[in-house]
Amino acid sequence: CVLAAAASGALCGLYNAFIIYTVKVAPFIATLGSSIIIRGIVKLICNAKTITGVYAEYANFSSATLFGVKNGFPLLALVWLLFGLVCWFVLRYTHFGRNIYTIGSNPEVAHTSGIDVRKNTYSVYIIAGLLCGIAGAMYTSRINSAVPTGGSGYEMDGITAAVLGGCSLSGGSGSMLGTMLGTYLITLISNGGVQLGINSFVMEIVKGVVLTIAVAMDILRTVRSNRAALHKTSAKKKEKEKTAQS
Fold this sequence. Notes:
Order of helices and strands: HHHHHHHHHH
Mean pLDDT: 87
């Protein structure tokens, strides 16, 4: 079941990569369109009905803890942590990870530097789809059923978590550990609202405000960085002119 979910997710990632790199559709539009298509296919398959009857062993995984210790570390959290650490290692210590940052910063520079932009772009979207498939399987285990509308709105939570963690919407910067901390913060806000009995609609407003503030901070950070780079370039140019005159 998990392997099938991962494989179908990887296939969706391949489709996204084709639309984005080969057809040249903007990534946000392409992934938004594919999410609508995939949700429609899922609803068509199950006639928009919730699928129940999940195997007990599979459903119990979501409530299991490490070494079976009562109130111990949840296995679902362990899966999230392990995948996060693997992604952190790949991004920080491998050529593939460094290529991703370079492509995100400037695809043309990456191409002229000898990086296979097509191969790396396809790999990123396929891996992302595969991980989403595994996440979907874990989500099914947690709620003990397969809901065709499950995960609605999670894309905005993902964007918010990434930006809060220091990832730039313009690409080329950010870290996996920062994104994981941003994810923890978003989850803390959501669960805190439930525990405090806050209206779910109010929590949606709070998440929207957090996303807006995070994006605004990212824009300001990018503007300051560009100004600093421009000032540095201008200073070097003036220094060269003085040297030439002398």
